[in-house]
Structure prediction request, 542 residues.
Amino acid sequence: MKNSYSIGEFSQITGLSVKTLRFYHEKGILVPSSVDESTGYRFYDASKIEKARIIMRLRQMEFSIEDIGAVLGQCADEADILSYLERQKNILQQRIREDRDIVRSLDQIIADEKSAKEILENGKFAVEEKNIESILIAGIRIKGKYSDCGKGFGQLGKAVGRYIIDKALCLYYDGEYREADADFEPCFPIRKEVSVEGVSIRTLPACRCLTLVHRGSYDQLGRSYAKILSEVEHRKSKISLPTREVYLKGPGIIFKGNPKNYLTEIQLPIG
Amino acid sequence: MKNSYSIGEFSQITGLSVKTLRFYHEKGILVPSSVDESTGYRFYDASKIEKARIIMRLRQMEFSIEDIGAVLGQCADEADILSYLERQKNILQQRIREDRDIVRSLDQIIADEKSAKEILENGKFAVEEKNIESILIAGIRIKGKYSDCGKGFGQLGKAVGRYIIDKALCLYYDGEYREADADFEPCFPIRKEVSVEGVSIRTLPACRCLTLVHRGSYDQLGRSYAKILSEVEHRKSKISLPTREVYLKGPGIIFKGNPKNYLTEIQLPIG
DNA sequence: TCTTGACCCTCCCGTTGCGGGAGACAATAA
DNA sequence: TTATTGTCTCCCGCAACGGGAGGGTCAAGA
Prediction:
């Protein structure tokens, strides 16, 4: 058992690369026991093995070199570094929270795209009668032009973005198309009741609906309305307000995409 | 509404810093609509605003510049980038897992240190009679020298490290001190039954014990044993095997610390 | 028309924790 | 003695910018 190791041997022993050892020397956190003055060769003794182990442990816990320097300078016992440990823990927990938020958005986008793809491939694009379940929603009621709809979704996103669990929809309180003074309500299904100024949170009741999935840009929606309304007339059903549009696939969060592939489900509650 | 913005105006509009815009230009992911040949001034038109927004969204999701370049080159719709999104999600989930593991270790160390501090300050260091609850443990039984104990803990750490929920302990199956051929079992309390080759997983039954917390290095343990055994004799109690030592504070995960502050609870089960 | 201040340009350095490689000595083996 | 490792220092690169130097450009007021 020697008590003086060259940098290569010490690297073998500790598992730290030669480069890393030189770097730690430069940073002053793991200084060789001796350095040959003429050759500059570094030599480490056994006591440095323990120190190297400490540094590795701290690095595994994502401590910065600077922090490790401070810790090694001040502490000899774990009790001394409690504050450092807690700070590190907070930093990591913060990063976990951020990463989780991102993963949630990614999941949302992925799920949305997959279901849209499903519909595009297997959808019938015909009038159907369905039961719609009740959902908890957040909405902002607007009287004005349909083009203000986007603003409503923007506000909603800021207000309850964290709680959205499904695709955007819009409620229409007029029985007919209106160029101006339309009465409608952009909504998001949410997973939790929260109270936000100016946002209505409530449960939309279950209902039986005639539905039709419209494929294409929004200015072509009229055609699909014509189709579904002719079916309503044929059945002599009565529509109750508000009617709904569910935006199965619209301009995405990242890309606007091609309007030809937009999917919108028209839902008309009947009797 | 102009349709040509200087880099400063465009920076105001998009919220991206001038430096960042120049950087994105250099990387080729957000190229100005025109560059004045003589002055080098960059000019952006309205179409770039949307592109800037896309880039910001992707950056928020921690996509690298390189990936963003690839995405922008190949895709125009979210459906096209599903694979990228999933890859990104996996990367983030992996990081979350790693961070969580670190946080767990940190928590463990913090909790251990705090409870050790508590004992150091308020401990009685006298023989006490206590009820010990049953615990699920993982152990490796060893016949040899007490100094092999550390190896056992090492193996256990590798085998069930993820499931450890409390301080290390050791069971002693000999009624007396043995220099060689000692029969003992290093153990960790664990939170989950797992099966590992060579590791015994079982529930240690509850029992009533005489206990004494020893403060100091392990080679001084004999004194505390003398103290507690004299109490046993005084009470005329009978000790049942195995006896236990719980390592309340020993050489830490990071620092070895000062042996004078080590804390070891001796537990002798009585009739 | 001149000046002033705001704006823009390029180029270089710094960040973190190393890894890769060049060119030059040093130590060891055949 | 030579060949092969081992080691040294110095420099560049990474990712995604931020800071600053030193210099040219633009629009408005005097």
